[in-house]
Amino acid sequence: QPVLTQPPSVSGAPGQRVTISCTGTTSNIGASYDVHWYQQLPGTAPKLLIYGHTNRPSGVPDRFSGSTSGTSASLAITGLQAEDEADYYCQSYDLSLGGHWVFGGGTKLTVL
Amino acid sequence: QILLVQSGVEVKKPGASMKVSCKASGYTFSDYGISWVRQAPGQGLEWMGWISAYNGKTKYPQKFQGRVTMTTDTSTSTAYMDLRSLTSDDTAVYFCARDGFSGTREFDFWGQGTRVIVSS
């Protein structure tokens, strides 16, 4: 089972705003480890979308934003576009078992 | 530009071993660690381990300890991931990913993935 919990799917119409949640514990997000988000289009490698909770790499539109509070994080996408249809994963670090990288189970975003 | 280019498709029999390579270019290889992440068909991402390209230090999750070995060759800027005693559960796409420049344990560049099929 993934260490971080995400909803399996979310959907929204073009132009709308959607959010994807990522719930962790006191040994990962709650221990102040940074949360990162990836977008994975079908058949491709994941692409870094948000790093360090809120930062966008060069080239990522400002329609994508991240936030973290306590043991949870969220990815928000505004002005939804058809090209946003993809799988989204959150990722952090966990201090248990000597320390290891952890992912959420992924969320499939469908643009209606 | 920064690229991670992985080796091609592999088909293996149960019980065999596999070795996937990941050749880096566009940056100083020894300045960043490399993780390996796999994705079984229709499933999510699973972290398999990390190696420092600076000193070869490794970190593996308990699930893969004893079965995985990660190495690097700084002369060719290539990382390798060896997985032994393969079963059908190891059928997956395997990605290498570079430690992010920000130092907060993100992965900023990824290889294209190597599909591994384990079947008798």
- SS field, number of helical segments of chain B: 0
Write down the oligomeric state: heterodimer
Query: What's the β-strand tally of chain A?
Result: 9
Helix content of chain B: under 10%
Order of helices and strands of chain A: EEEEEEEEE
Low-confidence stretches of chain A: none
Largest sheet of chain B: 7 strands, mixed
Radius of gyration of chain A: 13 Å
- Poorly predicted parts of chain B: none
Separation of the first and last Cα atoms of chain A? 29 Å
Give Rg of chain B in angstroms: 14 Å
| Whole-number mean pLDDT of chain A | 97
Proportion in β-strands of chain A: 35-45%
Fraction of residues in H or I helices of chain A: under 10%
Strand content of chain B: over 45%
Major pleated sheet of chain A: 6 strands, mixed
Whole-Å distance between the termini of chain B? 40 Å
- Report the order of strands and helices of chain B: EEEEEEEEEEE
What is the approximate shape of chain B? globular
Descriptive notes:
The complex is a heterodimer of chains A (112) and B (120). The model of chain A has no long low-confidence stretch (mean pLDDT 97). Chain A is globular, with a radius of gyration of 13 Å. In chain A, 0% of the residues lie in helices and 44% in strands. The termini of chain A are far apart. In chain A, a hairpin with a 6-residue loop joins strand 3 (36-40) and strand 4 (47-50). Chain A is mostly beta strands and 112 residues long. Chain B is mainly β. Chain B is 0% helix and 49% strand. Chain B has strands at residues 3-6, 10-12, 18-25, 34-39, 45-51, 58-59, 68-73, 78-83, 92-99, 107-110, 114-118. In chain B, the strands form two sheets. In chain B, strands 2, 4, 5, 6, 9, 10 and 11 form a seven-stranded mixed beta sheet that branches. Chain B has a four-stranded antiparallel beta sheet with strand order 1-3-8-7, with no helix packed on it. In chain B, strand 9 (92-99) and strand 10 (107-110) form a beta hairpin. Chain B is globular.
